[in-house]
Task: inverse folding
């Protein structure tokens, strides 16, 4: 099940990597836009890594978990898995043909490309 196909009562947790590159920030922006569009709830990936009790409980209560990683290091997915949280959908932005750079000026067409992949 993808975030686009979830029923209204399910909780979709969206965990972006939010890394220090264009693709990390594209992951973060995609999570923000998904949340604003009612496709799920952006949750705190770094809080999972820190094992913050309330954030862990929220993640564990999600019916579906979407990890959005910027690059093949898979930091978001690994963080969730190391905390014992199963990932239902995983997107790696560099696999969409977007190169990792230090440029933090995001292009909306790239954000849209990420959203299309997640919603397909």
Result:
């Amino acid at each position: 099940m993808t975030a686009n196909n979830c029923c209204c009562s399910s909780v979709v947790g969206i965990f972006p990597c939010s890394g220090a590159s264009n693709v990390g920030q594209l992951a973060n922006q995609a999570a923000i836009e998904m949340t604003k569009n009612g496709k799920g709830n952006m949750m705190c990936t770094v809080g999972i890594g820190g094992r913050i009790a309330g954030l862990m409980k929220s993640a564990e209560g999600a019916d579906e978990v979407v990890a959005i990683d910027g690059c093949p290091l898979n930091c978001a997915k690994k963080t969730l898995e190391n905390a014992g949280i199963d990932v239902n959908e995983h997107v790696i932005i560099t696999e969409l043909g977007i190169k990792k750079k230090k440029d933090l000026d995001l292009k909306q067409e790239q954000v849209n490309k990420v959203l299309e992949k997640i919603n397909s």
Remarks:
- The chain has five helices and four strands.
